[in-house]
Write a structure and sequence with these properties.
Chain A: Pfam families: Oxidored_molyb (PF00174). The complex is a heterodimer of chains A (about 400) and B (about 150). With about 400 residues, chain A is of the alpha+beta class. Chain A is built from eleven helices and ten strands. By secondary structure, chain B is an all-alpha fold. Chain B starts with 9 loop residues before the first helix and ends with a helix. The chains are: A alpha+beta (about 400), B mainly alpha (about 150). The interface between A and B is large, with 80 and 67 residues.
Chain lengths: ~400, ~150
Amino acid sequence: MASLTARASDRLERFFGTARARTSTPGRRTRTTVVLGRALGVLLIVCFATGLYSHVLQNPVDWLPLLPRPVHLYRVTQGAHVITGLALVPVLLGKLWSVYPRLFAWPPITGPVSLLERGSIALLVGSALLEVGLGAMNIAQWYPFPLSFRAVHFVLAWVLIGAMTLHIAIKLPLIAAHWRRVREDPSADEPTEPRTWPDTPDPDLERPPTVAEGVSRRGALIAVGSAAGVVALATAGQTVAPLAPLAVLAPRRPGIGPQGLPVNRTAAEAGVMASARSPQWRLSVMGPDGSAELSLLDLRAMPQQTVELPIACVEGWSQNAVWTGVRVQDVIALVGAGPDSDVRFTSLQTRGAFATSRMRREYVADPWSLIALRLGGETLDIEHGYPARVIAPGRPGVRQTKWLSSVEVTT
Amino acid sequence: MIIVDPPLRRSDVARIVIGASGVALILAGIVMAIVAIPPERYASVVVWALAAIVIHDGLVAPLVVAVALIGRRTAQRIGTTAAAVARSALVAAACCTLIAVPGIVVRALGPRNETIHTVDYVVVLSACWVVAIGIAVGAVIAGAMRARHARTM
């Protein structure tokens, strides 16, 4: 029995040794990992910060002021979130490539510290791969996971950023030692075999890389950088107008849709095809001085404001459009409310999670916050919210309620 | 009073502070998970995270290793610059393919409306691979010619 165990252990050790040698190439120096790790860290921090901002806009907390201006703010932050999220695919895979031979360290666990380190790396890798995968699949609207995207993506973001921070602490000496570029040493002996990833940190951290290692490292970084650049270029056009012709891998392309604007939730999906077109449609307005019922003609008879505002989706696409309608503050003034009020909009929609939306006073007070009736000079298409929808600066598209049925002053 | 012997260096203190912040952020995530995710879904999250590791470590990474091993001799023969160009083109095409897979599936299943996934990704990827393979082959030929030229000098 003992000899059987010894033989199995021996075989495993040989297998791991071979796998480590096969997967080790000269470019996989610690310096490669540190450079890719820096890029990964920057991208993850941008994703985390912009994601947090999007989350706060969708779930405002009372003590935190929100910013309607600049009008393109959310467009920029959410566009950056999705572009950097997609660029993470090559950078994350490149970082994992650079440390892949470490997977074949034998024995895999050498003590409590190594167990902790392996555990924290598993948490980091698992949360990073799942987070990027969930995001990429969600924006494509193919979501086969039995998990609530919003809840899991938000929670995993905290776990991922925490695991990354913990990983930085564990690897700090190596990161510090390889932070700066060291010139290659042409006189250094080239290893006869491809250099394997050190099982333990390189005994001589100051050892300059050989020319072969330096060139291979740069080759790997160029490959990852090129891939990230191509991915960003092929998708950024869904929100960066000048790059629109290149957006061949983006789920949306600007200018495509009714009235030249993409649609997320259709009228049929929302179950409003009949109610939105009904001649009996009225907008109910409720406030401190009572309530009012406004027909479409009533709304059209009020002072109209035309503004150019972006519609910016959490899925990362956005587009500028010209909207015409009545100021939100003018509508609530009819029921005795001032512009420093919070309001709640309700949609006619019978299906979907965004039937109501709260608008904070910062947005209500903004004269560019409209109950829009027209888009691009034409009556609003039913897919864009006919007869009336909300459009306000700096808010996520899902909060720009379509097919309005009521406006209620809440404070 | 806690006496630390030998005394902590500044880098040790930085490490402890950064590590503690990381643990605090992970704990914050776990607390939010308890609040936001129904308990019956915890196992799914863990299983999907493990599946992501297995798919990467067991499928994607070995595939990359295999391709690299097949191309190693060619890469050595054509020189580092040509190898870097060829590798970059192929890696970029592979990453674009990964990004496009969900869109291809949605187009096959039928998108939610006609403003989503308006591009035929299969055509785009075909063009992308033709260009990438063209660049790689061009780099290999140029690298091989340069190497032969260098040998005959």
